[in-house]
Design a protein that fits this description.
Strand content: 25-35%
Helix content: 25-40%
Largest sheet: 5 strands, mixed
Oligomer: single chain
Structural class: alpha+beta
Shape: elongated
Distance between the termini: 96 Å
């Protein structure tokens, strides 16, 4: 319309033009309004089908979570929260539809009186106060804006990034370009302001459809991620399966290399091996039974799983070979390839395949240890080497023997320490007066504890003081009082004894330690 002051004739022409446009709109609106009603009914029908499909998918997930809680329990917990969020949002929208359609109840066939729902007052009055968004309008817009973020917060990494982007786009509320206005309009204005009521109802129904589709996509995506992970080559590892688990010299080694998959979240209901039940662990089971006589033996059984209320059994079939006992002994030092003089060096001595009661070992200072079979203590005496001899009786009564020589080393000298720290120490006189003088054996294989029994205490310019025990005495404190800043106090000739062990050995003097007065 032209602006400015209009003549009576121009006003009349404008009024007739508006009446003409209104008449055209009135003639077209019946078909358009009915089309919106048909579309709304179809979307509602589709929503009902989606609800049924979602419920079916959830029941499958619920059963899988019951069968394999480690594998599906976390996903089921997330889906529970997402479904509750979706229902809350959909119910909120249904409440809006119920309120704005009160004057227009559906007929017996479930159809709105679409031709009567041509005004926009109901939705405009709810979402706007004048031309500004009302409190209800802002609430509606905030719920749409926050929905995708809430989904992401609950689902986390269980929802694929590409799927999350689809959801964010589906519920985006950015400004929309309007060709009619030739400008960008706020999302709420573009979709709901001044639209016929039946059109707004249809859009709200479509928003409910988006919510249900989102719920469906999330559950489908979670199942799909399991299938993708299961199909991925990274889920497999080569497993060597020999024809048997023992081969004789000169025999061809035969077997298979197969691709197997280990899932730490898959726990069997039960595992049976050779007729006995064994504990089922995450993705595996450990078994133990007697080897039996020499020869080839079978391993049979089954892995049993719960799946959809039924027990699925996976057969176990394998074999192993028991071979005759070897003719050489296994002799090893538990700490290293040397033994230390004065210490009860632990050793394991055995003949493979021969019970401990038919094995005997001898060496100077060797004694049987209490507890596990094959355990000995070797406390060597003088010399630089010790020979350990082992004899055993084979099942046929014939003897077999072997021996091994070990080097003998002395325990190294410990290092002097003040307050548990070695090397040059610095601090106040008062700290040295109360600190303990100790000895530490650094980087040694055995845990030995040394107790200081005597040491010499020397302040520069004063005579050395011999102290009994491991702390400075009154004479040391008097000498220390005359020391100056920067003076280095020497603690040397540190005598020790080993405590907490039966080792009969006198350790070497500990290395000196210095303390600089600050």
């Amino acid at each position: 319309m032209a602006g400015g002051k209009l003549t009576p004739r121009q006003k009349m022409i404008n009024l007739m033009y508006l009446v003409f446009i209104a008449m055209l709109a009135l003639n077209m609106s019946k078909e358009v309004l009915s089309a919106f009603g048909i579309l709304n009914n179809k979307i509602e029908s589709s929503n009902s089908i989606t609800d049924t499909r979602n419920e079916s998918s959830f029941l499958q997930l619920q059963q899988k979570a019951k069968d394999q809680p480690l594998q599906y329990g976390d996903k089921k917990a997330k889906v529970d929260k997402i479904r509750a969020l979706c229902k809350e949002f959909s119910d909120y929208i249904e409440g809006i539809k119920t309120e704005i359609t009160k004057p227009f109840p559906k007929d017996k066939e479930g159809n709105y009186p679409c031709e009567q729902m041509d005004k926009s007052d109901a939705i405009d009055n709810m979402f706007y106060t004048g031309d500004k968004e009302s409190k209800k309008g802002k609430e509606f817009l905030d719920k749409i804006k926050g929905f995708a973020g809430q989904i992401k917060a609950i689902g986390g990494s269980s929802i694929a990034e590409v799927e999350m982007k689809k959801i964010e786009k589906r519920f985006a509320t950015d400004d929309v370009y309007s060709e009619k206005a030739e400008a960008k309009l706020p999302w709420l204005d573009y979709n709901y302001h001044h639209f016929p009521l039946i059109a707004s109802v249809t859009k709200l129904t479509q928003l409910q459809a988006d919510i249900k589709t989102t719920e469906s996509d999330i559950m489908e995506g979670m199942f799909k991620s399991d299938l993708v992970a299961a199909a991925s080559l990274t889920a497999y590892q080569p497993i060597v399966v020999p024809e048997k688990t023992a081969f004789f010299q000169g025999e061809a080694v035969k077997g298979k290399i197969i691709l197997g998959k280990f899932d730490p979240n898959l726990v069997a209901k039960s595992v049976i091996v050779n007729g006995a039940s064994v504990p089922a662990k995450a993705g595996q089971a450990d078994f133990s039974f007697g080897a039996g006589a020499v020869g080839e033996h079978e391993i049979t059984g089954s892995f049993n799983f719960d799946e959809n209320g039924k027990v699925i059994s996976l057969p176990i079939k394998g074999n192993y070979v028991v071979v005759p006992q070897p003719k050489s002994a296994n002799i090893s030092a538990d700490k290293m390839n040397v033994v230390y003089r004065g210490l009860p060096n632990p050793m394991t001595i055995s003949f493979a395949g021969i019970s401990d009661d038919k094995v005997s070992a001898s060496a100077p200072g060797l004694s049987k240890a209490a507890g596990n079979a094959g355990k000995y203590n070797l406390n060597p005496g003088s010399g630089t080497e010790v020979k350990v001899s082992v004899t055993a009786k084979l099942p046929d009564g014939k003897p077999v023997s072997d021996s091994k020589i070990f080097r003998i080393k002395n325990i190294p000298a410990p290092a002097g320490a003040i307050g548990g720290s070695v090397g040059l120490q610095k601090g106040a006189k008062s700290r040295l007066e109360v600190s303990q003088v100790s000895a530490v054996l650094q980087d040694f294989l055995y845990d030995l504890t040394f107790q200081v029994t005597r040491f010499s205490f020397k302040v520069p310019g004063q005579a050395a003081i011999i102290v009994s025990g491991d702390r400075v005495n009154a004479q040391c404190k008097a000498a220390l009082a005359r020391a100056s800043k920067g003076d280095q106090i020497s603690i040397f000739d540190i005598k020790t004894k080993i405590v907490g062990t039966t080792a009969a050995i006198v350790p070497k003097d500990a290395a000196p330690v210095l303390y600089e007065i600050q």
